[in-house]
Amino acid sequence: MTVQSTQPKKLSTGVEGFDVLLGGGLPEKRTILVLGGPGSGKSILCTQFLKEGLEKYNEGTIYVSLDYSKKAFMHDMLQFGWDFETHEKNGRFLFLEGAAIRRLPQTTASVDDIYTPDDLTLEDLVDLLTLHIEKIGAKRVVIDDLTALTFRFPDDVQRRGAILSLIEALSSLDVTTVIISEALGYGIGRGINIEEYLSDGVVGMFLLKDGTRAIQISKMRGVQVDNKPHPYNIVDKVGIEVYPTETIFSEK
Amino acid sequence: MANTVITKSMTASGDIGATYDTVLKKLTSLGYSESSTTWPSNMELKRGKRGMLARNFQDIKTTLKVSLKQVSNNVNIFFEFDFAIPKSYISEKEMEQEFSKIKSEIISSTAPHITEKEKICDVCLNPIGVGENFCRNCGRSATRQKTESDEQSNEELAVVFDPNKVAFGQKMVDDALYGGIPKNGVLLITSPACEEKEIIVTRFIETSLDQSEIVVYITTDDKFSQNEKIMQSQFLYQIICNPQIDLGSLKCSTENCVQVNGVERLTELSVALTTLLNNIERISGQENSKRLVIDMLSDTLLSNQSVNTRKWLRETITKFKQKNFTVLAMLNPHMHSKEDVQSLLDLFDGQVEIYEKELEGELRMFMRVKRLNNSRYSSKEIQLVREDLLIQHNN
pTM for the complete prediction? Predict the structure, then answer.
């Protein structure tokens, strides 16, 4: 009798040590949440994930930004030696800039529509993504970040419903999506975001009291992962570097 | 096929010329034949003809070099046995029996008659001349009457040097450890802040560098900044756990020197050590013997408490032992509680204690090997004299 593996196909993230923790990479066609405080390197990690798809597998990729301007993104990533402008020119990369998007009311979403973060509903975002994913054949999508989208739902019930709808919609898009969100503290006793329950995987990136950076995979549905915290660094010309054999000695 | 070199030493009382003749006579009776001699200080003898096919111990092709040195009323005798077979084929028991025969004959032939009323030096056990109150050998005035146990102590001076040990390069330390730290072993020196300890540790590092062996040195200060021999060696890799030190002022090569933000951030230190280990492995391979010197253990214990320090130390030792490192660490026990010190001791294969003790109204430094698991050592108390250490150091 042949036993078929139930493990989903893995997508390399481009961060060698992180792939070790993930047992090979992020599970394909799932929605993964990356949590962290300001300056923790969430955007860098996610950009490395896109870069890996672009440069190693020639996959189309999309970066949806709601509070990170395209100019700043291109500039910041060039510091690591990552030239996304060329990928954009080649039609394999698309930067959807929420800050510059405006949408005319009562119209159907189209590729050329423009939104502001306040106007952009979660449904609009899914419509927009559906169009672009098809257009460039995208396999990897990053949404940076969810907090900006969910601010308009102060009520937890509404917020949960909206996020659940978004994650369900993204799951049907046949892409692997990484959503960035802000973390509510670190360690046992930290506040848990609603989206953590709803997504397929949760990765936390935290800055500890003594300045040590720690990455922890707290959830990855259907996949065996190393869920202990491990140190990581943001390294010039490299990006995120995760040390999967190292231990965190710091006070949480 | 690799030869095996085993060195041994002993001390005999008497004149160098007479001792030389006694040694030569004894060795000849054991089947050694004279190859070359320089009376009264050196001789080279040969015995046996076979290598792996030797029928017994006496049949193994052996070259024995003996050197003698007169020190006051004593003669220090050094034996270097060079066997034409690998170490694993040499019976340690037979080797010991052979050396015991040589030693007992020489001691019985050369030992002067010492009456119970005669005095000996409390430190080096040499006889003190009639009417004299100081030792002509070591210059100290610590004298006492000779007892039977001193005869036994004298036996201990015949030290076995094992090529599978990592030497300090400091004779009295190496003698006490029967050659040094067992290769790939982990030794702790517990000591208060003192120059004697610094000399021993410095010598340990220099000995390694002299032999082109890599040393990884973890420190919180720049104590070697003026020591060009150490700082400019391509075999020294330093991890400096102190952000205040200006790396530019050190004379080390920047590739070999890594600075981290203090001992408080053990994770950062651990990552730096792993990165360094990987680089060293790329450069030198894993086979060569290497040394790790941890000279910031007390700082680490003060900053991180015993739980985290123990965890970090255990991981670090494991990591380095896997890469063929022999580890030496220093701890000042006076800076910590007994419980904190105890929490680290079992991570080490051995412990050497350096301590202060009053002798004739003066505080002096002493050293004693407290334990060395699965290895021979002398537990005798040894007085550490700065000048003696420096002389041995420079030699």
Answer: 0.67
